[in-house]
Amino acid sequence: MTITQLYRNQVRVSALIDEIVAMFRLQAQEKGIDFTFTSEGRIPEWVITDEKRLRQILINLLSNAIKFTNHGQVSLNFRYRNQVAEFTIHDTGVGIEEEDIQRIFKPFERVRKPGVPIANGTGLGLTITKLLTDIMGGDLQVVSTPGSGSEFRLSVMLSSIEPLELVRSPSQIVKGYKGERRTLLVIDDDPSHRGLISDMLTPLGFTLLEAPDGITSLPLANHSQPDLILLDIAMPHTDGWQTARLLRQQGFQGPIVMLSANARESQLNALGEGLHNDYLIKPFKQGALLDTLARQLQLQWQHQANTLSSAATVLDRPATFSLTDSMSGSTTVSTTMPTHIEASLREEMLALADIGHLSGLRSCLSTAQVDGRISPSLSEELESALDRFNFHQISHLLKKSL
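Below the sequence we write its predicted structure tokens.
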């Protein structure tokens, strides 16, 4: 894959963020500065994006922040609204002069400040970051105060989805799985949690073993050699991470799925050690549990028919209203404004909206307005949707313009 190619797949956002946070928290500690992560609102569980490119952008930005911060802290904030993710990286480093802000994105450019050592590297880090951001249809803004620090704000579309493994026909219910019987070990100090998991999985053909704590689980795991272990993190005495470490030390090589009520706790303490393979946030639904098991054990589900019919779909239609005059009869007047867009432009903008290419959409719309290839009413509606990062509305408006 070249730098200009995108490979979009299903990405678990919280796992990606946890990986990044763990990586740079360690780097910050080694340098003697603080690193914090905060999030505003919900974090979508699954999105469609190019994980490799997004990770590379975040790594480049955070590496730069830590490199030029000798005192204070570096922070990462995540915000998600209307399918658009906003990553804000703030540091208390040396800062950037206003006249140098545009130069930092140019190849081989280095901003030199008195008393600040020249950083190692090729000088291409931020150039590549800006290029990748543009390729992904995102936006990268910089605000900086010399001597006080800098703030880089990355906005990129991350379309929230249900993972493919969970998109099942409404007429199908899982009744079991193909292949040999699988044994699972549930390690949790709460008997009600163990019982809930057993109630979910035993009817599907799994053999469930239970342990109330980490120490009890060790001989049980060694003797039974389960196919997969579900391990609670928050247990007294020996917590989940310590238990996972002991299980690996005694030779267990199968998948370990960590269970936690804290989304941030689920990966921060053990990334890079190879202790676990996946995690679930409590409380979880059966579908999420089955999806995780299918992914880790390569299971193929068997289904039973469900005779319940699916709900009817209501098609979207332009709104109209009737003005009835008793003397002259009935007249129907459409409330929809006349809209027009050139067919080739419409298809191009639909493709851009589908991948969340904000800058591409703005460029297309601006050119079309000058060339008269789009009606003023539709142009105004699209501009409003663009200002709100509402790509679904943009697609809807374009499809209605047929």
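DSSP finds twelve helices and 17 strands in the chain.
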